[in-house]
């Protein structure tokens, strides 16, 4: 018997949806990804329809929903949260919030086999959303708390390790500390969080019992001046 998990994301200038079909040990993922600045509300639902249609299933067959809960664009997070909560509530299925920074780290690991990654997203106002990760066996493990911070104050967990920087926050490269820059072998600014990685992370969370009622899962903004509730 097959099980299905839908994931969606609108946390950045990109918009994406992905569907994992799991049957025993077999896994396959269908996905859509587009750069759609200011058009998330127009593209997100059609993308969901596209992956469901490609899989030949209806929303009623979904066993869970995952979404990028942040950090990221305030408007984009609200769009994704509202869509994901509405789907999960209407289908009476569990919802899983996934860190956009974790999804970004996992993408870099899967695509380039990086093992030590600092993810950073542009948080505007001269700050970045950032976290450091150690990756292996298709997993990204968080080294410390996710934070919003001035790039000059970002500190690496271990200066002796070769780190790679990933995400739009590294467009502010000149503002990062010289010691951090010396410890990084490279930095990539063109990767965006994707629903595909969120689907894999969400499936693992769902199988581990991390699924929650839709009302319990809220966006994570990190900034103190935005009202937010951290997921249980």
Label the overall shape.
globular
Number of β-strand runs:
11
How many angstroms does the end-to-end distance come to? 30 Å
| Overall average pLDDT | 94
Which runs of at least 5 residues are low in confidence (pLDDT < 50)? 225-232
The main sheet comes to: 6 strands, mixed
Summed up:
The chain has five helices and eleven strands, in the order E-E-E-H-E-H-E-H-E-E-E-E-E-H-E-H. With 232 residues, the protein is α/β, with parallel strands linked by helices.
Describe the structure.
This protein is of the alpha/beta class and 232 residues long. Helix content is 28%, strand content 32%. The strands form 2 sheets. Strands 6, 7, 8, 9, 10 and 11 form a 6-stranded mixed β-sheet that branches. Strands 3-2-1-4-5 form a 5-stranded mixed β-sheet, sandwiched between helices. It is globular and about 50 Å long. The C terminus is likely disordered.
List keywords for this structure.
six-stranded mixed beta sheet; disordered C terminus; five-stranded mixed beta sheet; 11 strands; 32% strand; 232 residues; alpha/beta
Strand-helix topology:
Layout: E1 3-9, E2 14-23, E3 26-35, H1 40-55, E4 64-70, H2 74-91, E5 95-99, H3 100-112, E6 116-124, E7 127-136, E8 139-142, E9 147-149, E10 163-166, H4 178-183, E11 184-188, H5 195-207
Parallel strand pairs: 1-4, 4-5, 6-10, 10-11
Antiparallel strand pairs: 1-2, 2-3, 6-7, 7-8, 7-9
Helix pairs in contact: 1-2, 3-5
